[in-house]
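Class, study these two lines:
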Amino acid sequence: MESAMEQASRRPLEATLNEAQLLDTQRAFDSVAADYDGPRGNNELIQRMRVTLWNTVSREVPANGQLLDIGCGTGIDALEFAGRGYQVVATDWSPAMVGRTRSRAAVAGLESHVEARHLGVQQLDQLQEEFDGIYSNFGPLNCAPDLHAVAEQCARLLKPGGKLIFSVIGRICPWEMGHYAMRGRFRRASVRGTRGPAAVGMNKHTIWTYYYLPREFYRAFADLFTLDDYRALSLFMPPPYLVDYYRRRKPWYEKLGRLDDRLGALPLLRDMGDHFLIVMRKR
């Protein structure tokens, strides 16, 4: 068994490693910020997942409420909620992404509804506001080295009864496993099974990513939040990076999308998919 002295000596090394990984992830997103809305912005599968989160937030958080966006990217979600009447504090660890959000808000004339701040998920302790809801879309929390710390800060920042609505990259994606296994890329097919951070390449940089089953993810929040609901996103539909499949046979894949809508919240099925959408309430 590890001694208390050994544990104490290990913590500074872990902190150093976490900091290095966060800086790697920051550089990766900085490097793609200028073109991030190109193919992704026109990706029908991404948009489908966005709309699910948008409608869930609108249903769970009172109209005209205060929202915190963790990992805002270029601000697409923040501006959508501003247009729906919410006040949004949009945060991101990538300064280039924050710059894109500010520019987008200025062009849309929504600067009074969207405040973009350069703030990583590990820096939520710097916020002092209270929010009606906190959301995060497309996996920024998969890059958080300490989910328990995130849970504590979210509980501090939320008003009583406030909601968390997170879109998280899941551990079991049948499409991904099948796609890469059929091409003999078995190591790539199994990457989501990695325990601890997995090195995911993007634009010659590394994003350090933690993958979760929904209940694994919720475990870090369970002391402070009740689990209201969760569902699979892109289970029957292919993941967004396979959008060319969708475009070649759009009517057929739209039928699969309806299966996602109808069956994605069922037991067992909701534990799979490219992402999962989870809703939690502050105790």
In short: The CA atoms of residues 15 and 283 lie 30 Å apart. Residues 4-282 form a domain with the Rossmann fold fold (CATH 3.40.50.150).
